[in-house]
Amino acid sequence: MVRPAFGYHPARSLPTENQLNELMDWMNKHSHDMVAIGEVGLPYYLRRKLKVSSSQYEQYIELLETFIQKTVTWEKPIVLHAVHEDAPIVCNLLEKYSIKKAHFHWFKGDNKTIKRLEKNRYYISVTPNVVYEEVIQQLVQRYPLEQMMIEIDGPWPFEGPFWGTMTNPNMMLVSIKVISKIKKLSEEEVSERLWKNTRLFYQL
To answer: Given this model, what pLDDT does residue 1 score?
Structure first.
């Protein structure tokens, strides 16, 4: 069963006013079909490539705030693309609207932000790069398993043992093995906890 989330990815160019109105009207009509709003967030990678101006970045923040407001209206969790310096800005918006159910997908950030996410009981998810990237392994080490999920974010060209392999759900089994070693728990315990987290967050 596929359970959809609806949103507007920040890797895309800013929508026009008409496009945004059309999207919001459509989401409103189909709000009962979606389990979450997302993936929405801020254009970190576009900004790094100098493809987003300061004024455009402010517009992305305003767009994200619109989606966060809708999480209150529709009573839905939110899935976020918010990494590195963008994450604290997103936290500010979530706290402004007292959002409790936030999922930071494929999260990357500094220690201060990690502590902030943990304190707010926000969820993070990790991808198969946990198998070969030390910084993600360190994140898994310190972040509570009770606030964690896994994903593959396919299609994505992962490296390490996955080099040249099309993303597929079996990659999550390898992620679970690594997480279980880091957390010093059995694979069964980790798998059950991650599945429970996912069901609870998305109300499956």
So the answer is: 79
